[in-house]
Amino acid sequence: MKVLISGGCGFIGSHIVDRLLKRSDIELCLVVDNLWTGRKDNLHHINDDRLKIEIRDVETFASDVLFDEIYHLASPASPPWYMAEPRRTIESNLIGALRLLDVLKPGGRFAFTSTSEVYGDPRVSPQPESYVGMVDCTGPRSSYDESKRCTESLLFETLRTKGLDLRVVRLFNVYGPRTRPDDGRAVSNFITQALAGKPLTVFGDGSQTRSWGYIDDIVDGLERYFWLDKIEYPGPLNIGNDREVPVLDVAKYIANLFGGRMIIQHPIPINDPTNRRPDLTLANKILPGWSCSVPYEEGVKRTVEWFREEMKLSKVG
Ligand code: UDP
């Protein structure tokens, strides 16, 4: 099997690469990553001749080799990063998917990590996959939300018109080891701020909720779904932890872990969703036995330990 993973140097992508290389049927695992938000360090621990890394933009990717399986993860996922470069965000998701479809073997598998952002600021809770969402296509989050939505359209319409072994997941606020210290999302911000002895920045009053998924739980779900041999359901499939927790609670928890750091309020960003929680009915049916077993209290502790080491190393290096 020849497999390609775009964004394989990234936070989630690198964890997928680890799992892919455990498979004995894989002869080539090609990572395509431009290191915009990904880091080569995330694959540093791997010593395996089957792994090849091409540092380049996925939207210009071309190859004579066709791939049996393609995993398209290349995209920033953190609001400050995608808001800073909206055009590039759209290119990596949408144009990237077009380029990758060109190098998929006929009958090959195409997996795409979409996002709970397709639900926008939801009016329904929890959000089932059938909920069409409340997204503002002119807002500052739109480059991410709409490019994920349009890539879903491209893939589901390719499935309808040409056929494809498709797997589309929608991920909900994933956090954990290998997040960039300067990623800018809530959990990593709170932890890096606490480690640096700074106040934790809560946007708005912190009553907005998210469903925080620890990376190992999420990748367990992805592995089960992506690797399933026979599948009746091409997606979209919600993958996340369905325990919904206000941002302020997470900030307070982390502040207390550090003996009571100060929490300060910043203005709430435009279009910041008020709530987010996956309906996991479908996931439970399609992935029997899978569930998120790491509560955020435990996941945060593990992430703190990882960041502690990471920040020590980056000071030395
Ligand atoms: N957030 C916050 N402080 C931060 C970063 C984020 O209060 O330093 C809030 C943000 O406004 C949002 C929630 O935490 O309501 C989750 O933000 P994140 O960027 O992690 O993910 P997303 O907005 O994409 O769900």
Describe this structure in words.
By secondary structure, the chain is an alpha/beta fold. The chain has a single domain (2-175, 213-242, 277-294), classed as NAD(P)-binding Rossmann-like Domain (Rossmann fold, 3-Layer(aba) Sandwich), CATH 3.40.50.720. Helices cover 36% and strands 20% of the residues. It has 9 helices and 13 strands. It has helices at 11-20, 79-84, 86-102, 142-162, 186-195, 215-227, 247-257, 281-286, 296-316; strands at residues 2-6, 28-33, 51-55, 67-72, 104-115, 165-171, 174-175, 200-203, 209-211, 213-214, 237-239, 244-246, 263-266. The strands form 4 sheets. It has a 7-stranded parallel β-sheet with strand order 3-2-1-4-5-6-11, with helices on both faces. It has a two-stranded parallel sheet with strand order 7-10. Helix 4 links the parallel strand 5 and strand 6 (165-171). The longest helix is centred in the middle third of the chain and has 21 residues, at 142-162. The chain is globular, with a radius of gyration of 19 Å. Uridine-5'-diphosphate binds at residues 78-79, 173, 185-186, 189, 201-203, 208, 210, 247, 269, 272.
